[in-house]
UniProtKB/TrEMBL annotation:
Membrane-spanning parts: 30-47, 53-74, 95-115, 121-140, 161-183, 203-224, 245-265, 320-339, 351-375, 381-402
Top-level taxon of the source organism: Bacteria
Protein name: Uncharacterized protein
UniProt xrefs under InterPro entries: Sulf_transp_TsuA/YedE (IPR007272)
């Protein structure tokens, strides 16, 4: 949901261990601290919020843990394919999406939920706003160093520059919320289109079409790989046996299935798929309201959204999921002995500012990010999810020419993917 470069691995005292795993001893003080924070937050949610919120915190923890352990991302998956033709990560995306549509189809068809809230997928119109927003997001995630999920789990892993990316992600999302009426009401767009409900295929037929599309995309990545003789991805820190559950890097394809299952559980818990960036608009709007800006007058915060603006941020299910992702990634990082703050430079900070603004603004225009629009949209059989993926990939191609201006690398040979 999210992608950053791998954190530099800390030096370890045992050179044999370093050679075999690349992992340090667990950072127990950090793990204990994270568990205490998680417990306090869990108690607060149990005592003060709806029954689903503690469950969502747990799901967020598992999402963040999975993302970090597998170094499962979206930004570098797009970048590696666009630059050197390596499509292994994109094939993992197809496995994730295949598992997701298989789980989402019966849930959406029969309205399966844990709290009788009803369920609805992310199905949005395709118009100028989606085209522009997804393209901006594609450029932004390559400059900012990670997508929406990648920003959160990189913060959990200690990548300092991602705090800058997140700050301006929030700013961009807030400005996008203010401008959204122009993009959605004054510019052309087609009606929301679902492969399941807009075509007469039903969820069974839409599932079959989706699986065929994922297979086709996976095959195309293999064709490109062979044609470009793409370099293989370098290994990431791992270990063997049962310890790998807690300390070693997980296989991409195993993580893909885990993410699909967790997204389906999120859908059944809160009635909507996993999302990230709507919380950024909420946080930014609350901050703007605090300094005297009349955000309540924005059309974005009218109707159903008005209640979220007035309530505690802990009542917002997306906020709770985001906090869980950060904590889960932090625990995973500390368990591998990998948590370490990274250095800031003028180049990566400048790129983070621009990238964060582009992603925040783009996500609002495109009805979501790599998680809400791409993962959640495609899993919900929405056409806009596919369009988002195509335009974000186009933005990635453009960003390959911009990254060197900020001192950021562009893959040309074997490097580590996360």
């Amino acid at each position: 949901m999210a992608t950053t470069n791998v954190q530099p691995v800390n030096e370890v005292k045992d050179p044999v261990k370093a050679k075999s795993t690349g992992l340090n001893k667990p950072q127990m003080k950090l793990i204990v601290g994270a568990l205490i924070v998680t417990a306090i937050l869990m108690v607060h949610l149990l005592l003060n919020q709806a029954a689903m919120q503690p469950i969502l915190l747990l799901l967020g923890l598992l999402l963040g843990y999975t993302l970090f352990h597998a170094r499962f991302g979206f930004t570098s998956a797009f970048r590696r394919f666009a630059s050197v033709g390596n499509g292994k990560a994109l094939r993992a995306h197809m496995v994730m999406l295949g598992a997701a549509v298989t789980l989402f189809a019966p849930i959406l068809a029969f309205g399966v939920s844990f709290f009788d809230t009803g369920v609805a997928g992310y199905v949005a119109p395709v118009g100028i706003s989606v085209l522009v927003g997804a393209f901006l997001f594609g450029v932004g995630m390559q400059l900012g160093g990670g997508c929406a999920s990648g920003t959160l789990y990189a913060i959990g892993g200690g990548r300092t520059v991602m705090f800058v990316t997140l700050l301006f992600f929030i700013v961009g999302s807030t400005v996008g919320a203010a401008h959204l009426p122009f993009w959605t009401e004054e510019l052309p767009a087609m009606e929301a289109f679902s492969l399941a409900t807009s075509t007469g295929l039903g969820y069974g037929g839409a599932w079959a079409v989706s699986i065929a599309l994922f297979g086709l995309i996976a095959w195309l990545t293999l064709v490109v790989e062979r044609k470009k003789k793409a370099p293989q991805m370098a290994p990431v820190p791992t270990t063997n046996g049962w310890k790998r559950i807690f300390r070693g890097s997980w296989p991409l394809f195993a993580a893909a299935i885990a993410l699909a299952v967790l997204n389906a559980l999120t859908l059944m818990t809160r009635g909507a798929p996993w999302g990230i960036t709507s919380a950024f608009a909420l946080w930014g709007s609350k901050a703007a309201d605090f300094i005297g800006i009349d955000v309540a007058s924005w059309s974005y915060w009218q109707g159903a959204n008005a209640q979220a603006l007035e309530a505690s941020i802990f009542a917002d299910s997306t906020t709770v999921l985001n906090l869980g992702v950060i904590l889960g990634a932090f625990i995973a990082s500390a368990a591998g002995g990998l948590f370490k703050f990274s250095k800031l430079t003028k180049g990566n900070v400048s790129a983070a500012v621009i990238g964060g603004l582009f992603m925040g603004y783009g996500a609002r225009l495109a009805f979501g990010c790599n998680i809400g629009a791409y993962f959640g949209g495609i899993a919900s059989f929405s056409l806009h999810g596919y369009v988002w993926g195509i335009l974000a990939l186009a933005g990635t191609f453009v960003a390959l020419y911009l990254r060197p201006l900020f001192g950021l690398s562009v893959p040309k040979s074997k490097d580590t993917f996360c």
